[in-house]
Amino acid sequence: MKQSILNQFNNKIVFSLFTVLILYSCKKNEHNKNNKNTNSIKYIALNQGANLSKERQEKAFGKWKLTNIIYYDHIRDTSSKIKVNENVTVNEQGVCNHEDVIIANKYNTIGTYTFKNLDTLSTTYYIFKIGDSTMMMKSPLLFRIVNGKKTKDRARAEIYFIKQDIK
């Protein structure tokens, strides 16, 4: 009788220790899960552009020199400038380079474009400012998404053009 009680007691101790070890390993794995490396960083935009009036269309469409792109990071308060210097033609359907190869397609409205190989943001740009000799396209405010979760980081990009055929 004493041996059966002793066996039951030993079995309960072994079972309890086994359960504690399982719980400890689960907790440890959960802790390691939070320390994983970042797998994906994306930027998404809320505003997808604006429609151009007829006056602004007349000013915007034509031959331009794409001079540079500036990326702004609002949280770190930094900017990066990339010089491009490529002759382009802006029209209603898109933006073409000097070889008449389309480098940007129209996106939903006139004056809003999605560039194919300009950057890795995969966002739209809309014509923001048009002067007699300069034009600026701007991306909407971009929200940074890390591993599927929205962060507080914000960014934007601007593309600058200089008029080619000034009269």
From TrEMBL:
The organism's place on the tree of life at top rank: Bacteria
PROSITE patterns assigned: PROKAR_LIPOPROTEIN
Protein name: Lipocalin-like domain-containing protein
